[in-house]
Amino acid sequence: MIQVGLNHFLVLSAVLFSLGIFGIVTRKNAVMVLMGIELILNAANINFIAFAKYGNFGYQGQLIALFVIVLAAAEAAIALAIVLNIYKTFSTVNVDEIDTLKE
Amino acid sequence: MNIYDAIFYLFAVVTGLSAFFVVTTRNIVYAAFFLLFTFFGVAGIYVLLGADFIAIVQLIIYVGGILILLLFGVMLTNKITSVQIKTGTLQIVPAAVGVGLFAGFLIAVLTYTEWKTVDTALPLTTTEFLGVMLLQEYLVVFELLGILLLIALIGAASIARR
């Protein structure tokens, strides 16, 4: 095995990103779609921090990763509020069946 | 193979496998708990990359906050007493083929690109530098994020209570 370097982290984040995409396109439950989005955000964060270490950018990459985590928290809160509202209106969170804005 | 590599492969396997189970398991509660292991694995990766503060933030916000929020979402949107907490999937084969091709392409591009790398030594602690940067160069972004979080909080509460 070769020495762990930048490429290893990039490949890991590519795998996480692809799995997130897979979860988003195959799952019917809206909460599962949110989990796929969280996987994708984590993949992006790994890239930021890997380049912060290997790209000689100082701490800016880590700071951006911090901002991404904050945005992910805000996104999860809003998205779950919307999902709860959808569930109240349609009694389901299946993203296949919800195709209207009103009942 | 030194200990750094061994720990990297351990965390990479934990992260990748649990992420795989997140997107493939039928039970949505299991998926949420596999997501827990994914977040732990990613936090370990952050530590290996010398980002100790980000790793702790990852544990506090993702594991302590977002995952709990997702679990609440699961519990509140399923009729637990009557229906099994199962979630259907659709179009698995085309999605797997498409995502597989995409992942192969992405990994090939990432692997064959000649990145200019400078392997900086691992700093002992990053918290001090991050704090100074946050309150000097990135002060505006920091304040904007605070306002954004406040807006998100109020918005989520008002949407959910409607």
CATH topology of chain A: Helix Hairpins
Distance N to C terminus of chain A: 57 Å
**What is the CATH level 1 assignment of chain A?**
Mainly Alpha
Shape of chain B: globular
Rg value of chain A? 17 Å
Q: Give me the CATH architecture of chain A, please.
A: Orthogonal Bundle
Tally of distinct domains of chain B: 2
Order of helices and strands of chain B: HHHHHH
Summarize this entry quickly.
The complex is a heterodimer of chains A (103) and B (162). Chain A has 103 residues and is an all-alpha fold.
Structural features, described:
- In chain A, helix 2 packs antiparallel against helix 3 (60-90).
- Chain A contains three helices and no strands.
- With 103 residues, chain A is mainly α.
- Chain B has two domains: 1-96, Up-down Bundle (Four Helix Bundle (Hemerythrin (Met), subunit A)); 123-162.
- Chain B is 75% helix and 0% strand.
- Chain B has helices at residues 3-24, 28-48, 52-76, 92-112, 127-135, 139-161.
- In chain B, helix 1 packs antiparallel against helix 2 and helix 2 runs antiparallel to helix 3 (52-76).
- The longest helix of chain B is centred in the middle third of the chain and has 25 residues, at 52-76.
- The termini of chain B are far apart.
- Classes of the chains: A mainly alpha (103), B mainly alpha (162).
- Chains A and B meet through helix 1, helix 2 and helix 3 of A and helix 1, helix 2, helix 3, helix 4 and helix 5 of B.
